[in-house]
Amino acid sequence: MVKTVSSNSDGLVSLVLWGLFSLVTVVSLWMLGDILLLGLDHLSLDFVIGEPADAGRNGGIAPLIVSTLLVLAVCMAVVIPVGLATALAITEFLAPEGRWQATLLRSLDLLSAVPSIVFGLFGYAFFAIQLGLGFSILSGGLALACMALPLFVRITASALAMVPHSYRQAADALAISRVSWCARILLPQSSSGIAAATILSIGRSLAETAVLIFTAGYVMRMPDSLMDSGRTLAVHIYDLSMNVSGGDPAAGATSLVLVVILVVLNLITRKVLPDRTF
Amino acid sequence: MKTSAAEAQFGREARLQAPPGVRVENLTVRFGQKTAVADADLTVKSGQILAMVGPSGCGKSTLLASINGITDLVPGVVISGQRLVGNRPIDTMSSGILRRRVGMLFQKPNPFPMSIIENLEFPLREHGVRGRGQRREQARDALAQVGLWGEVKDRLKDPALTLSGGQQQRLCLARALVLEPDVLLLDEPCSALDPIASAKVEACIDSLRGGYTVVIVTHNLAQARRIADEMVVFWVEHDVGRIIEAGPTERLFTAPVHPTTRAYCKGLAG
Question: Closest Cα partner for A92 from A31, A180, A27?
Fold first, then answer.
């Protein structure tokens, strides 16, 4: 009798779980299907390598792809070293469960919950105006880095904290220096967590519009340097669907390119930072 | 951890002589409000094996790990009393020198997530052994010393975590031995192993007698009786761990003075 009840409730639980799983999958596929339907016809090699024309309705998106990758490069060039250093400082150099560690982690949680437009305004005021970088890819990348850092640090710090205590005991007992401990054991053992942090930061940065409209601007020309203004793909999609009548097919095609870039960067990150726990 | 040439030589010079003894005087260790062990006195003679026995939570491991200063790393710990290795207070040694002279083995095998050979070469590099050939040679000697060389010589590049539990524990012992320590601290080294693996590790420990001064924490009284020259019995009194009796192992089993020791060694308490 008892057995029947428990197997019945087991069945119910797995039904609910499968239902939720299907719901998430269906919604994702639906979104992908929608942009495929919208943009696939518009997508071609010329679209990927061409210059935009007619406010983006026609022509291609090559300068925007370049701007996007440049903004992302600036952003990740800041996020990865600064983020790793911060996460190491929090987990390795502050007393575990001490007041400083708790305060820092809590402020990081708060920061990652701040709406991105706030980072946009901050980036505009600080990088564009105060530091005189103007509307530029550099301003945009730096402002984006401020937005992505809290997330990156939070995930990396939890990955570092997951490294088994027994390794640290062994390292302590052998008087392994802190630098070697970090370089040879701690960081390699956390590589899959660091990869996850990197991928999520890349994802958020590629999807970002609010921060960049205030800082990188929306010039569609091919950028000559990091000091040029540049429009990213996400900003382009936003502009096409909100401000340009008849821009939807181009917006759909641009979205597809963005998804492909995201997937490729994802694969590269996993390749560079494989799961080294064995 | 860089060590000066004169001090780095210490281990090797000492190898030619008998290893130094260990002495703990009036040691009290507190974590915040909780006193883990109080007023502990302990003497381990050169080259002998001393077993620390007693129920869980009576401060054995705390005392053990304070001999090489690992306990000192715990946030909020307060330690008073003297700890001497070869008549030299450990506070006068750098942590690099201290940990090199006093090796440690833990309850659960904890090889680094690296290859078998790298588990031995990494600490050697850390302690300034520059020559690749010399590192190989010392690693080989250490593996031979724990009877592992024959088992792993064809798979030195394999991850250490592919070894069996008993082999991992012997690799950890080799990792401690490769730095040529004088003293070894063993924290229940066999308790996570099956009887056969446990017997092999125990045989390794037995072979250390004379060449190293050994302190071992164990819950296995039969093991203590087999391998230890001297024994100390810990007990919890008023929530504080204390040493209630110390002496030659055989005497503690045949003619214990303290009634609790008598009951514990007969398996009636603890």
Answer: A180
